[in-house]
């Protein structure tokens, strides 16, 4: 069985996912077979594996760092928030159902066999497993239910723990000391190293504090990782992308930040293009007059559409569409663009509401989720984005609704399920004038797709976009993973971490 090491944090967003990813890359570069694991992940962004199963994107990113294909075994339980008190519970890549927080806490011990089976399967195939915790191990109100999240998982896997604190938000010494003090004695004994994360400045200034921290806890500090300015995919709504105040570029793109936004990683490729701004907008006064408005995926299409209707964003988007602004919806954002949304089974809000009426189609929410990876191409594209016609694409579908175009309305793409035995093509999405929509997540990832979109908008504006070229997104991510590993090699005590890994608990 594989050796294991676990990354836990003093809080959410302390940097666990990134440090776990960096260790996966380092171990992979050093010649080990390594895989990531997170028993329970709560995230807005998810991914569909080759087998058509759903998992969290953080473990996908970590698998890419490890040089292996993502497997749902790396994240056997995924919680996707549907509202402030409940989530859709996905087990082994398939929907178990919607549960309130209280219902899930009462149920979760029944999932221990699923977690153990997934972990043991990975451990039998690899040399090292890098495990990521969730939140903090010192949430004393939740500790009784921690059967496989933080210390519960460390015990199941017999994994030594590295505890990570976030100095960027202040109070890192209190974070690390306070967390260890709130652990039970047997749990505290499992913490073999402390990591100070997101530091900016002269590290020697920290030396007195590190000396005192090691004396008080009896645990060595095995690294002080810098604040890293790298671009990797964000897992959830704690992303800093939403807080950026972008100045409008020569080509200005606005993503509507709906309350239940999901899979916003779809838009990351545009961030790499010079002269292009990508802004997240949640108020009418911030929308202004962008060149393209992007409607993202959502965990509740109907409620997020009503939110836009109530705060005036829908009316503003309709006005922009009437003036010829390009509108592009993905998944839930695509569904909003149609004429009606019906929910006879109560999958979302129930009942029927009118859509934005920009695409001639109707959507009915079904009880079964569509989960599939697809290949395809844009087909018959008209309007500003006509340059996309014939361009290849790839991605995946995750949705509960079925959308039907009306009166022979034009589709946007032709796609095929990558697992389909006959490779049959089907029409996907819809278009009307300068309004476009598709169910395919990742539709912009190929370099040529993003380039053709910017070229089309530039032609409409009469500006030269020849210097605004994108990059192949997968290749770009690989360079970022190597930068991550190089920085961690310089700032972590890797010999000590390897000793911790070998000694275990």
From TrEMBL:
Q: Name one GO molecular function term.
A: catalytic activity
Q: Which SUPFAM superfamilies match?
A: Class I glutamine amidotransferase-like (SSF52317), P-loop containing nucleoside triphosphate hydrolases (SSF52540)
Ranges for domain CobQ/CobB/MinD/ParA nucleotide binding come to: 5-225
Keywords attached to this Swiss-Prot or TrEMBL record, sorted alphabetically, are: Cobalamin biosynthesis, Glutamine amidotransferase
Q: What's a GO biological-process term for it?
A: cobalamin biosynthetic process
Q: Which InterPro entries match?
A: Class_I_gatase-like (IPR029062), CobQ/CobB/MinD/ParA_Nub-bd_dom (IPR002586), CobQ_GATase1 (IPR033949), CobQ_N (IPR047045), CobQ_synth (IPR004459), GATase_3 (IPR011698), P-loop_NTPase (IPR027417)
Q: Which Pfam families match?
A: CbiA (PF01656), GATase_3 (PF07685)
Superkingdom is Bacteria
Role description:
Catalyzes amidations at positions B, D, E, and G on adenosylcobyrinic A,C-diamide. NH(2) groups are provided by glutamine, and one molecule of ATP is hydrogenolyzed for each amidation.
Q: Which PANTHER family match?
A: COBYRIC ACID SYNTHASE, DETHIOBIOTIN SYNTHETASE
Which family is it part of?
Belongs to the CobB/CobQ family. CobQ subfamily.
What's the protein called, per UniProt? Cobyric acid synthase
Q: What is the lineage of its organism?
A: Bacteria, Bacillati, Bacillota, Clostridia, Lachnospirales
Question: Which gene name does the record give?
Answer: cobQ
